[in-house]
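Note to self: keep these together.
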Amino acid sequence: MLEYLRLTRGFDFTSYKRPSLRRRIEKRMGTVGVETMPGYRGYLDANDGEVHALFDTILINVTGFFRDPQAWEYVSAEVIPSVVGARAPDEPIRVWSAGCATGEEAYTASILLAEALGADGYRQRVKIYATDVDLDALGRGRRAVYDERAVEQVPAELRERYFERIDDGFQVVPELRRNVIFGRQDLLRDPPISRVDLLVARNTLMYFRGDAQTRILTNFHFSLHDDGFLFLGKSEVLLTRSRLFVPVELKRRVFAKAAPSADAAPPRAHLERTVAVDAANGRLHVAGFDSSPSAQLVIDDRGHLVLANKHARSLFGIAGRDLNRPLQDFELSYRPLDLRSHLDALEEQAYPRTVRDVEWPVGGETRYFDVQLAPLHARDGTAIGVSMSFVDITRFRTLQDAVEQANEQLETANEELQSTAEELETTNEELQSTNEELETTNEELQSTNEELETMNEELQSTNEELETINDELRLRTDELNGLNALLESILGSLQSGVVAIDAELRVDAWNDHSTELWGLRADEVVGQHLLNLDTGLPLTPIVPLLRAALAGESEDGQVVVDATNRRGRAIRCTVTCSPLRDLSGAVRGAILVMDAAPADGG
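Structure:
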């Protein structure tokens, strides 16, 4: 479905969250009565208007003036003054409302800036860019006409100042509307607006997947001034999304661009000067040697310990005063291995050597080292000492022992060979993914929170739709009651007896004059079979007229019969039978009109 919409309609929803997309599409499918995605694609091809309805359903335009009032109070009290104070009196102030929907939050920002700068300052300095992908929503934002319920959250004094009452509700005043520019923009495809002081993107990121959110945040970082602010929705925490922003007021979801790192690389010229100075006095070499992650020692040609880096001093308990002492005075000369014998061998054959898997019990646990010895030579080739490195391989040795033990178990249990191999493979994959899972746990929790917020907005949107339907049903009911009252008034005003029957000869209507003639009330006869009624009207000569009318063979049939009214008096009754047709012309019943006159001599 997403690929179909991208290729045929030119809109790419693939970066939106799938659960939300599925719910919104299935909602439209349920509305139009289609059960399968292929069936719905055919429905979209056959009904151009359905594409518009589907986009309206997917792009949930739930917004409002001063939504989350406490957050906007913080923006008004802290953020707006900071934005205004950071600019010279003649410098422009630029605001970007991304995902603005119908523009309520863009106008909210404009109201706060107008309050802070005054009418003239706002008109001359402020530009507010309101962008969205929904063209219909942007059109409503440009018109800036909102109903009574939409402006309820606007404080009364601000509503009086910045809105005009019109027939359809309220419209934002032209002085405010003139500085708000609406335009279509796809946050993933189109370039961002630059040099922005305040970026409002409330509950917009939560509709996108994690990779898309990262791309959008990178664009937001580019857009903002270094002293600008990012204002997000209440479900968007941002802590795990990017390191490009730092929280200013996390509870209100206000963020700023992250400051440059304190340990960032210095300018190149300064670095070259520093390197030159350090190279001259040897400090750079010493610092590099001392910060090595492996324990390193240097022995001079006399067999004295002359250098030990920080890791080596900690590992072997070497103090600064111990340097320049003979190696044989230290315990490390024979523990964890006999270094003297290896030094003697190195004098005979001057090439680097490595002693692997050296075992050393330390503090109740066994540690393993690879010890590397390498001769040191001056530029003229003269031997001047030996460098020794102790590389801690305990973790790798532990893993190696575990693998060896597993292999032994596999060799003694051939019948479980295949399953054990699969378990080892699974374990290896789980170890590789454990770190990623830990890093993404908070991400998943944040995504869940955004999903819940999305569902809440969907429910709010559905509730608004139900309220609209309820209003329409109430209006239809009032119209129906009026028509029924009109029909009863017409039937009661006729001086003839009128009876309406359906195709099954059951009474649908019985006016007051019929009651006066035959003595039966409407509540006694409606729904009863005409031929079962006990009246003084003989029905045998009337039945052929009824059949002809119901069959559509006759428009008006008439017969005069002798009857007895409710007082027992004989009367001559003229009965006219006409077919009852619906708007399409089909016969749905018949109407009997009965006019009575006294019988001859009565």
